Amino acid sequence: MRPTKSIVPVKFLYWSSQITTMSLEMGLLIGVGYWLDLKYGTSPGFLLGGCGLGLLAVGWQLFRLVRSGMQGVLAGKSQRTPKTESTSRSESKN
């Protein structure tokens, strides 16, 4: 019996959620800075502050993402797909 394949790979969903989170963090902080500039008339002070905080937030998320991936590699977790029945049979013939 062949294993069923997922329509959307889990890794794709994980990475897309991480990238979406980083984009929203950056956009939200820039937007808040822009709004504060409009409210208080301090152009471009808060906008630049929002950009700086956004870059820090995205950098921290990226650091955590890379660190968690490297811990998996250093712990010896393989990124390969598990062997299926058909590939194990072909390997046993050799």
Can you characterise this structure?
By secondary structure, the protein is mostly helical. Helix content is 74%, strand content 0%. It has a domain at 14-73. It contains three helices and no strands. α1 (10-40) packs antiparallel against α2 (45-74). The chain starts with 9 loop residues before the first helix and ends with a helix. The model has no long low-confidence stretch (mean pLDDT 81).
The major β-sheet equals: none
Averaged pLDDT, please? 81
Helix-strand category: mainly alpha
Calculate Rg over CA atoms. Answer: 22 Å
Number of strands: 0
Number of helices: 3
The amount of helix comes to over 70%
How far apart lie the N and C ends? 22 Å
Proportion of strand residues: under 5%
Keywords: Membrane, Transmembrane, Transmembrane helix
Protein name: Putative F0F1-ATPase subunit (ATPase_gene1)
Region (Disordered): 74-94
Biased composition (Basic and acidic residues): 82-94
Topology:
Layout: H1 10-40, H2 45-74, H3 85-93
Helix pairs in contact: 1-2
Give a brief description.
This protein is mainly alpha-helical and 94 residues long. It has helices at residues 10-40, 45-74, 85-93.
List keywords for this structure.
0% strand; mainly alpha; single chain; 94 residues
